[in-house]
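## Example pair
The file below holds two records. Each record gives the amino-acid sequence first, followed by its structure token line.
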Amino acid sequence: MNRIQMCEHSPECSNGVSCQLVLENGETGLETAEYYCKAHLVLRIWEVENDSSMRAVSAEQL
């Protein structure tokens, strides 16, 4: 499921505020950026904290 589409169709995300989350893969060391509304950013950070193979590097409002 594409989280960005989920955010675009969710009433909690209709305020137009978007955030960037940078994740690091603990196995490869590669960093990736993901984009969410504020409401889904919190959920995604919770998911990452429960995944030992990923680490949140930074999160910021765009």
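Second record, same layout:
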Amino acid sequence: MSEEQLKAFLEKVKADTSLQEKLKAASDADAVVAIAKAAGFTITTEDLNSHRQNLTEDELEGVAGGGCAGTNMCVYTS
């Protein structure tokens, strides 16, 4: 279920600039999980780490450059 929740959250983030801004300001994975929870999604830091392992080169470059991945999802490790 968490994988489905993560995918649904990512879709919501793509369409919601306010969520994108909140994620850009997130300091760590726990903050991302809290933002997702406030938006009505149940994800874990493990879900985020799993997603991070599946990022494309372009998405990795976006994260490494301090931006958000092509999904507009900032991904952090704790």
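Notes on the second record: The longest helix spans residues 2-15. Confidence is low (pLDDT under 50) at residues 61-67.
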